[in-house]
Amino acid sequence: MFPRDFAWGAGTAAYQIEGGWQADSKGPSIWDTFCHEKGKVFGDQNGDVACNSYELWEKDLECIRKLGLTHYRFSLSWSRLLPEGTTRHVNQKGVQYYNKVIDDLLACNVSPMVTLYHFDLPQALQDQGGWKSPSTASLFDSYAKFCFQTFGDRVKLWITINEPYVCAKLGHEDGIHAPGLKEPGTTAYLVGHNMLRAHAMAWQSYDSLYRSKQGGQVSLAINSDWVEPFSTDCNEDIAATERYLAFSLGWFAWPVFVTGDYPEIMRSAIDAQSRKLGHKDSSRLPSFSKDEPSVLGTADFFALNYYTSRKVKPGGGCGRMMCMKSDRDAAEVLDPSWPICGVSWLAVVPDGLRKLLKYIKDTFNNPTVYITENGFSQLGPVEIEDVQRAEFYKDTILKVAEAIQEDGVRVRGYFAWSLLDNFEWADGFSVRFGLFHVDFADEMRSRTVYRSGQEYAKMILKHKLGK
């Protein structure tokens, strides 16, 4: 059903699980700063302790072993390793922590997939302009080289940046993620551009300095919904759907996998909207410099984060305000036949993942694909017997199998999001994605496997037994 070497994984992110926000000389990140301001996060909650994985790593390892995972995806906290964001000051306690995580995983025959950046920029770099500053790309490259040098002898799968779309839009246009900026219509494009530059620099560094000795692979994790026209026989809806894909998946995948530049439909829409609103100067969408290495080809696999699907039609609002929605001119709509899981934005559409995988194969030259995030949320009272989520995983993994067998998509791994209930960004602890429940009222943050975790473990074991 799946390739013998298929990666069965689960994922986490440093700020969401580690806690220890000031432990052992760690520097603050933008999420530390953001959460400590009133009114930014559900219930004014924060990740100061979270799952306390910094102190309770062995508990996490028990969960990983109980599931029988072959791979575990986690992120490094940039400010735990480099408190000031630069290699001038290395925090050896942070290095020791991640060395232990990696070594313990390998001792249990679990391969690490390591994410260098999962939303938590060191505050020291934000104070210097953050991702709006072109210089942050080269600082990220220095950080990446430090990590490759320090951990790359044991890590063979790297993600440079997780979901640059989310960081750019939610953090710099909508203001609901750190650093909480609301600068519509301009900053998100600049941030996305600098993140692509940062990724390309890090990939080029790995390729030229480390690949021959370490033999690893590097990519960036791109999030995308599957989208379809609201009405399949309406040309306006079809065109809106194409714009929507260009402004989400295409924004980051097109430069890396197709042309080395942004989708033409994105470029022309932004330029046209700018002229319409009286902006006649240079485009709000930056251009890649010919003086820097090309972003084209800077991915050894396609890392996909998929959660939900949408129907699309023209529209998007913003009125005369310059923003991404008015550039895109495409509104997303939920199909009423799709069940909603927990949070309002997450419709359960396993078949959407299969369709998206086929689209990626056809559009991006049939790359090797790792599904680096996919999950199902829970709200309200805790349900350890989470039957609906267990069925979701069965249905979704079946669709992945169909994509491999019937559509010829080269999927090489599936990572459930997430290993643990954790700090879910602006939703705090009110939303739970874990295969294990974490009791945040318990000082020891006890972990209890959900039924969905047990069922996922059975699916993994069945594969290992060749059934």
TrEMBL record:
Keywords: Glycosidase, Hydrolase
GO biological process, alphabetically ordered: carbohydrate metabolic process; glycosylceramide catabolic process
Superkingdom of source: Eukaryota
Active site: E373 (nucleophile)
Molecular functions per Gene Ontology: beta-galactosidase activity; glycosylceramidase activity
InterPro entries (alphabetical): GH, GH_1_N_CS, Glyco_hydro_1, Glyco_hydro_1_AS
Keyword Hydrolase: yes
Pfam families per the UniProt record, alphabetical: Glyco_hydro_1
Keyword Hydrolase found: yes
PANTHER family, sorted: CYTOSOLIC BETA-GLUCOSIDASE (PTHR10353:SF291), GLYCOSYL HYDROLASE (PTHR10353)
Family the UniProt entry places it in: Belongs to the glycosyl hydrolase 1 family.
Protein name per Swiss-Prot or TrEMBL: Glucosidase, beta, acid 3 (gene/pseudogene)
Organism name: Labrus bergylta
The organism's taxonomic lineage, starting at the top: Eukaryota, Metazoa, Chordata, Craniata, Vertebrata
